[in-house]
Amino acid sequence: MRNCLVLSVSFTFVYTAYLAIQNLQSSLNQEANLGVVSLSVLYGTIIIFGTQAPIFIKFIGAKRVLVLAWVIHIIYTASNFYPTFATLIPSSALLGAIAGPMWTSQGIYITAAGEKYAALQGVSSEGALHAILSKFNGIFFMFYEITQITGNMISSFVLSASSYNTSSGVDHRICGPNDCPFVSAGNVTSKIEEPERHVVYILLAIFLSCNICGLLLTLFGLPHHTEVRGESTSVFKDMASCFKMSVDKRMLLLLPLFMAQAMAVGVLYADYTK
């Protein structure tokens, strides 16, 4: 149970920062659509490197993968202090490359913690073990879903100190996606007013502190587990097993749901949050 809580809290710290930054990317980095491009690179890299997760974990271990992931999250957050294509795109690619191994390591730790807890409780039946694993996953994702609340609350409180959020008495009787008071005739590109830069720096500093807290908690609070390194199999066998699973009929039937969710999330993060 302890390992489950340590892992959950460390993810809460890190993803409080990451999800809030993700929600603000398209608004804070509008120049040349840098924010949207960086998110596209990030998630595109996840697709490319996601199948290599077993190889990462086999060679460096699950805990080291998590520690490396948090270090890259720190780099990603730091790159937002000076967002350019030369800083934000490489850090986004790094973050995407480590995301697959990171989530796989999370699953390994939660499963290992559940199995250890079941052994301590003297549970032997498969049904009871599944109930414990469901409980541990429920605890973890409760903490994870909270991060959208905590991250957006921090963003709201900090940005409210900026003139970015001041009220205006002007009545703009305009409505609709192509009717914005900041656009001229013939141009449907919205101009979103950016907050003062020093306020953004304060916000990013808070998120950077959250990342560091998550790193320290994982580094000193989460033990190594030799059993989570996986079986001794060849790299090619690992890659073949991942490919075999990806073309499984049941997995292919889930693809339309994945694509629909991806489109909805893309609109939410890239456009709606503006």
From TrEMBL:
It is a multi-pass membrane protein. One of its GO terms (cellular component) is membrane. InterPro entries: Ion_channel_UNC-93 (IPR010291), UNC-93_regulatory (IPR051951). It holds the Pfam family UNC-93. The chain crosses the membrane at residues 35-57, 64-82, 199-222, 251-270. It is found in: Membrane. Coiled coil: none annotated. Keywords: Membrane, Transmembrane, Transmembrane helix. Belongs to the unc-93 family. This is UNC93-like protein. It comes from Lymnaea stagnalis.
